[in-house]
Amino acid sequence: MVKEGHGERLSGFHAREDATPKRERVISVLRKHKNWMYAAIVVEKCKVNSVLWEPETFYPKFCGMLLRFVFRGRVKPGTTKLLIYTDTLPFTGNRAKAAETTIKAACHADLPDGMPFHVLHHRRESNAWIQVADYCCWAVCRKWEQGNHEAYNQLNSRLAAPELDAMSRGDGTTYY
After folding, report:
1. How far apart are CA 71 and CA 113, in angstroms?
2. Of 112, 91, 108, 106, nearest to 61 (Cα)?
3. pLDDT digits (tens, 9 = 90+) for 8-62
4. Is 78 left (phi over 0), alpha (psi -120 to 50) or beta?
5. In 3D, which of 99, 81, 79 has the Cα closest to residue 89?
6. Is the alpha carbon torsion for 145, 149, 61, 123 positive or negative?
């Protein structure tokens, strides 16, 4: 990608921030690799009850829903350990500990008994899979927010199942 003129910021990729040519190149590379899938959850924040708005409640709640989907049908037979990566948490201290406890509780509830796992929070630039997840989330977000299906359609073959609309289970209230 350096030879193609994308070398100005190769320490990491971020779909929203990357220029269109770089974004198109990254999506092209992702499409060429066959051995990966992604899952997505859509949360319309304006439909989330205010009791869940705090980040230490919001992220673990909806992360748990996504992890449950992955753990209940996408863990390959013979898997002996899971590594669960997130971007760095947007909070620290007791709030971070509470969020991690909730994520770990989801793992304990939905993983096969005794399967070891680790939850790791790394800067997105340090983990290629976090960057892949960013691109996939960006494509889903563009579809839902703007009706732009271009990137979504390009990555659709890697989508494990249609994205989960978490708010479809609610009462339809819009809070703001």
Report:
1. 12
2. 106
3. 656 677 888 888 888 998 899 999 998 899 999 999 888 998 888 887 778 778 8
4. left
5. 99
6. negative
